[in-house]
Amino acid sequence: MRQSKNRKNLIKKLEIGKVYEPIEAIKLLKENSYVKFDESLEVAVNLKIDSNKTDQNVRGVLSLPKGTGKKIRVAVMAKGDKAKEASDAGADIVGDEDLAQQVTNGKINFDLLIATPDM
Question: Residues of the signal sequence (predicted)?
């Protein structure tokens, strides 16, 4: 398979067979990127555990520092002070009966809807 000029230059910069530290590897990836889109990176970790032994299972949740990249649009149905409070808190869409009408007609786009009890 023929390699592009960019790929050949990238291979020249790397030491074949060298084991890079994670921080160094990520730095190399960022410095030597030649594509015009946001690349992704996969990481495989070998923990050397026996999954048949219950005391060696790994469970947990990982929270990414900058999120997953998807912006969630929040709509809030509230009146008066609660509407101002929601707007100040960063809600994307704030309204009362007019917002309810738009939701009923399907003319509004949001991911999460929050309503106050008086609505």
Answer: none
pTM beyond 0.85: no
Domain that holds residue 30: 5-56
- Count CB atoms within 10 A of the CB of residue 112: 11
Q: Are the beta carbons of 111 and 73 closer than 8 angstroms?
A: yes
Q: How far apart are CA 116 and CA 75, in angstroms?
A: 11
Write the CB contacts of 83 (distance below 8 Å, at least 6 apart in sequence). 76, 94, 95, 96
Q: Is 116 exposed, middle or buried (0-12, 13-18, 19+ CB in 10 A)?
A: middle
For 36-94, write each residue's pLDDT tens digit. 888 888 888 888 888 788 788 878 888 878 777 778 889 999 888 888 998 899 889 89
Which H or E run includes 93? Answer: strand 93-95
